[in-house]
Amino acid sequence: MSIIEKLQHKYALSNQGAKDMIKAFVACTLANMAQMMPVGMLYMMTADLLNKELPQNHKTIYIAGSAICIVLIAITEYFQYNATFFSTYVESGVRRRSLAEKLRKIPLSFFGKKDLADLTNTIMSDCAMLETASSHWLPELVGAFISTTLVVISLFFFNVKMAIAAIWVLPVAFIIVFTSRNVMHAVNKKASKYRVACLDGIQEALETVRDLKAYNAQDEYMTGLNKKIKAVESNSIFIEFLNAAFVCNAQMILKFGIGTVALVGSDLLIKNQINVITFFMYLMVVSRMYEPLQIALQNFSALISTDTQCERMDEILSHPEQKGTQKLSNKGYDIEFKNVAFSYEEGDSVLSDVNFVAKQGEVTALIGPSGSGKTTVSRLASRFWDVNKGSIKVGGMDISKIDPEKLLSMYSIVFQDVTLFNNTLLENIRIGRKEATDEEVKIAARLAHCEEFINKLPKGYDTLIGENGSELSGGERQRISIARAFLKDAPIILMDEATASLDVDNESLIQEAISKLIQDKTVLIIAHRMRTVAGADKIVVLKDGIVAEADSPEKLRKSGGIYSHMISLQMKSDNWKMA
Ligand SMILES: Nc1ncnc2c1ncn2[C@@H]1O[C@H](COP(=O)(O)OP(=O)(O)OP(=O)(O)O)[C@@H](O)[C@H]1O
């Protein structure tokens, strides 16, 4: 792996970002070296002053040298600023975009294991941390390392004993910080967990504020949340303390270097092995050399702490993507499940051997007891998850070979949980097909019987609905979701409890509209209520991970199996409600 590739992998950088980081290393090294130049001049000047004469040509050298030093320091500082700051912020945007892009391409199973607060934390806080790491910590550390190495080499040319007296502290100081690695890694992992738990708690409190109020559970909840906040607080203090303990000790060791240079220098001076100017120069160089190293030690320690963030980022970036062809070669839109087995968690099978065909031009209804896997079947059919065994084909084409976004272009999906955005009603329906005209949106809304409630709103289609449609009733939200499906007009329609929140009048109106829409389409409906599925062409009954029955509603009713049993239960329940 080249240095560029290593940097890209470790700090989630783009190719350009890794190249910019190398530029920043060079810039920091040059800036440190430029800061050393006045020391050389001072050395020469001291020699002249001790000789009690300042030759004219030396005067010119000092004046010109000082001007050159000022210009060089200004140029290298500017170069360093440019290389570290500006490119870092550009790279930070690239990093966040590539993370978001990656999240689009990884299967939903990944999101099942991660919660939203954790992902938000990675995209915002971890990215911000890496932003500082790549703008300051790493370039300054590498710059200090290279410039110090060059200075150390030159120190050996003057006097080996003095050089050793000056540099013995370097490995000791860095080893002290390096030994903190394992401890810091463990506490940072813990800190990350506490932070995510706290963010989760805050998010949950905001989302459930209505229920907490309704059940007078606010105080109890706040006590729990306070505990989470306290855990973050005390853990952060502990990390700071631990960090300071290692870094301060290492920085203190670094200071011993000045002492040993003074001691060894005095001894060599007495023995006449060095002159006063060399002694003075060593004292000047070490005091100058340790300054960037003090910061380098802090940066080194901070970089060790970013290991946890890098790991979290890498977990997302290296997660296998769902890939597939963009070219569709399906013949028609029959959906065929063949020997499909699936589990969300290993060893906890949801579907063991599912076989059925949902034909184009027919309505196939999935029914079965709660938890039998109906929603799972619809998720697999749209490749939100990939099957563990067997295959799912659309028009003869294995969907695991189709690019997920391309596959979804063939589907209109009406979910149980309708997501609405804080935008106008018109735009919320237009999500079904971004390029649809206003007129097309309105036709779809009419078909889904949305106009009845839209026309009653003060601004009609231009009414802003609250975040996630909080100002709409459950039935209205579902009708918008159905309108989106009408608008998309895709050849395959997946409906999950599409009519669950509609009153009887609206439900029959929608059923009527749906029957117009589904002509020549493949329709897979999941519904609990037997009334919803009575008009289906085929009923597939799921139970214990397999298809227990599959046939037309009439035949299944007569067969006296699970479906007919569910019908009689539903009738009893309806009679009970009427009574
Ligand atoms: N994201 C998930 N991670 C883990 N297990 C899950 C997940 N989603 C569903 N399950 C489990 O898979 C099983 C089937 O769930 P599914 O939602 O497909 O059933 P269903 O028949 O649609 O249920 P219902 O009629 O109650 O909506 C259940 O045991 C459920 O707990």
UniProtKB/TrEMBL annotation:
<feature type="domain" description="ABC transporter">
    <location>
        <begin position="335"/>
        <end position="569"/>
    </location>
</feature>
<keyword id="KW-0812">Transmembrane</keyword>
<dbReference type="InterPro" id="IPR003593">
    <property type="entry name" value="AAA+_ATPase"/>
</dbReference>
<dbReference type="InterPro" id="IPR036640">
    <property type="entry name" value="ABC1_TM_sf"/>
</dbReference>
<keyword id="KW-0547">Nucleotide-binding</keyword>
<keyword id="KW-0067">ATP-binding</keyword>
<feature type="transmembrane region" description="Helical">
    <location>
        <begin position="61"/>
        <end position="79"/>
    </location>
</feature>
<dbReference type="InterPro" id="IPR027417">
    <property type="entry name" value="P-loop_NTPase"/>
</dbReference>
<feature type="transmembrane region" description="Helical">
    <location>
        <begin position="164"/>
        <end position="184"/>
    </location>
</feature>
<keyword id="KW-1003">Cell membrane</keyword>
<dbReference type="Pfam" id="PF00664">
    <property type="entry name" value="ABC_membrane"/>
</dbReference>
<dbReference type="GO" id="GO:0140359">
    <property type="term" value="F:ABC-type transporter activity"/>
</dbReference>
<keyword id="KW-0472">Membrane</keyword>
<feature type="transmembrane region" description="Helical">
    <location>
        <begin position="137"/>
        <end position="158"/>
    </location>
</feature>
<keyword id="KW-1133">Transmembrane helix</keyword>
<dbReference type="InterPro" id="IPR003439">
    <property type="entry name" value="ABC_transporter-like_ATP-bd"/>
</dbReference>
<dbReference type="InterPro" id="IPR011527">
    <property type="entry name" value="ABC1_TM_dom"/>
</dbReference>
<protein>
    <submittedName>
        <fullName>ATP-binding cassette, subfamily B</fullName>
    </submittedName>
</protein>
<dbReference type="InterPro" id="IPR017871">
    <property type="entry name" value="ABC_transporter-like_CS"/>
</dbReference>
<keyword id="KW-0813">Transport</keyword>
<dbReference type="InterPro" id="IPR039421">
    <property type="entry name" value="Type_1_exporter"/>
</dbReference>
<dbReference type="GO" id="GO:0034040">
    <property type="term" value="F:ATPase-coupled lipid transmembrane transporter activity"/>
</dbReference>
<feature type="transmembrane region" description="Helical">
    <location>
        <begin position="21"/>
        <end position="41"/>
    </location>
</feature>
<dbReference type="Pfam" id="PF00005">
    <property type="entry name" value="ABC_tran"/>
</dbReference>
<feature type="domain" description="ABC transmembrane type-1">
    <location>
        <begin position="24"/>
        <end position="305"/>
    </location>
</feature>
<dbReference type="GO" id="GO:0005524">
    <property type="term" value="F:ATP binding"/>
</dbReference>
<feature type="transmembrane region" description="Helical">
    <location>
        <begin position="237"/>
        <end position="254"/>
    </location>
</feature>
<dbReference type="GO" id="GO:0005886">
    <property type="term" value="C:plasma membrane"/>
</dbReference>
<dbReference type="GO" id="GO:0016887">
    <property type="term" value="F:ATP hydrolysis activity"/>
</dbReference>
